[in-house]
Write the structure tokens for this entry.
Amino acid sequence: MTALDELEARTIEIVREAYFRLTPLCMLWSVGKDSTSLLWMVRKAFLGSVPFPVVLLDTGMELDEVYAFRDEIALRWKLDARNEPCPSEDSIDPSLPPAARAAARKTAGLKAMIERDRYQGVMVGIRRDEQAIRAKERVFSRRDIAGTWDPQQQGAEVWGLFETGLCEGQHFRVHPLLHWSELDIWRYIKREKIPFVPLYLAKDGHRYRSLGEKNITFPIASDAASLDEIIAELEAARTSERAGRAMDFESEDAFERLRTMGYM
Amino acid sequence: MIVRVAVVGHIDHGKSTLIAHLLHETGNLPEDALPRLREAAAERGRSFEWAFALDALQSERDQSVTVDATQVWLRLGERRLVLVDVPGHREFLRNMVSGASDADAALLVVAADEGVSSETRRHACVLNLLGIRDVAVVITKMDRRDWSQAAFEDLAASVRRLCAALQLETTACIPIAADTGEGLVEPSKRAPWYAGPTVQAALLAFTPREDGVDQPLRMAVQGVWSRNGRSFALGKIGSGTLRSGAEVALLPGGQKARVGSLEIWPNGEVGSAATGESVAVAFDPPHFVDRGVVVVAPPPPLAVDRFRARVLRLGDAPLRAGDDVILRMGTSRIGATLDSVQGVFDQTALSFHGADAVQPEEIADVVIRPNRSVEVQSVANDRKAARFAISDGLKLIGCGVVLEPLPRSSVRHVARAEHLIDAVARAKRTGHQAATVWLTGIPAAGKSTIAMHLEQRLFRDGYQTYVLDGDNIRAGLSDDLGFGARERQENARRIGEVAALFADAGLVVIVAAISPYRADRELARRTAPGIFVEVHVKAELATCERRDPKGLFKKARAGQVRSLSGIDDVYEIPLNPEVELDTDRLTVSEAVEVLYAYLRERIGLIEPPATASEAW
């Protein structure tokens, strides 16, 4: 098996564990390269079907191309695609740095949805190599009613045996892509011919390396206008993937605060 | 190819520093990371700390301690590694195990100034339990010992001894200073006496443990998926190869099934799938399977009611005999009781001592009693299949490996009545020791004929003896059983139990039964009191077919008889029988003489009873 085969087989195994252990289950689909790749692997896990809703936490501030891509793929792949509007910025903790407030809005929207639809499992396409805090995540991450994460009290995961038992009001964030790197995702997209939002490709010397809200995500300088060029660029890259995401850098603890509050 | 390496060792011996500095030296740390790490250190009024690259939590940075395991990618040319930084504090052993359980190898980090500590030992013990074998020892903070060769060699020797005692293979012992980076990628100029590898070279020497590729098939079913009215068992192949058209056995129970088709979306049907692949399997004819079923290559392993295991306690309360737990094996969950604690591992003495409870973070040998029979594999047989976790229904509170399946010798909840006559008294009366002589072989190899003549020979010389013949048992005691794998197993178990009673009564009991499965014969050996002699009665298949006294081969060839051992069912040849009788070369009386001579050596008459000749 190649490295990509190994990564894929493990992701499919995790997706199936989530589906057979946690009901109801949904998946967050931000329409970026990671969650779209995850969606592709969900289809592999269930012989072409996606047997649960896929949700976009919508701040109304996504890039236009993101909405268009979402609608097209949802139709083509016969998805139960749902839009979850997030509460407005007025209701958000004003002590948070400005860019982090969008993330906090998503967190609030997610929390409301979980409470309303009583999800036991929410699948999220985060990866360990994106951010040092995410590197500490478990595959099955137990959350309490408020969705908060206590990294010091995480359960054990041994030999691919995950904790899946829940108390009333708890849910699991399931992370089937933790073990992938950014480069793996692009190589996989290329191998599997998975469609992606064209914003990742360079236009006029700039491209998006990571997709977030319009007002807080910025393209990077790049001439990578094809998949092969993106892969070559990343092979040589020495900067962080989320360098274009303002929310990570407003203060040292910004990301940890967001995550303990329940951000993805 | 990805190699996963756990970096373990005592708190504050420099694991996170080592990894972060290595990431930097090998070009794996983003450029924008360094300035941010400098800021984070300055804010806390401290000088730059490499460890902040991994210790990203506020609490970790404030206290300069790793709390949770972190996994980072390390690219070294074409090679890809995952380094798992685990916390060295005892309190966070749960996190250490979560990070290290899937590792292919480990770096054991020991600080030169502090040496081997309790946590060094604990982590080494846990590596052993997790089944990790290759360990490179990294002696850090050599600058604090002025790069003294003598200090290094002393410490290296003691870590090597620790590893050897725990069956860990020390692949290297490397002197470094993680703060300055000496010894990570380039050898330290201050250790000209050291000719071994750098940390980078030791990492490159690790290979993935390709577990399971050469093992028999094993796939735990995660669940069932239907498409167009056809139902598929979904799962990831744990070991071996799954082939379309192959005959498999389904656990629990050992029911036979045939793989109809094997699908991988969007490619469609594939002919086979290898270890590690996630697949969808349909059986033909359809079989009802559900989550928890395990698909294995026949014959199915032995089902037992108890097994011995080595476990690591990962909770906050002691685990005691009588406690109820849930076993997590593959995708199944089985209620179980902790039958007894046999011993707790003392990590200083490196030996087990008696205890009645397993305290948090302790490793212990225990006996576990599942609520139903379970087919288990010992860790010596199959490292991966032997693994399990213990759950309280909500959280994982331990993990372990099966050491040994235990035969159903002591019936649960039944007190055994004690005889007032012991084996010695019986031997005095019979004039000889009791024994079980177990003749195994394919049909028509000559088992019954040899058994009956041996019985006559022994009886004539004054032995108390009796033959349990497979066909006779089938006609009575086992007339409710068919010839499926599971039923053959049960038949062998019954013969073994009856033989054990006869032997207990003081007789030389001779069993003549095909008993095709090795595991069943091993069970009979364990069940038997005293002497057990396995005899392989062997002959070429062609010879047996020519003899064919019962016409079985003819019927099998005509398709009227199915599952004839040696023809269309397996016969597992004994690996190490006490006696081998080749009936292609030996006549019946010669074979009987060979066996008789062997038995006389082992259970010769103490003194012939006076009535022996008259009895004949």
The helical segments of chain A are 3-21, 33-45, 64-76, 100-117, 182-192, 227-236, 254-260. Chain A has one domain: 3-180+250-260.
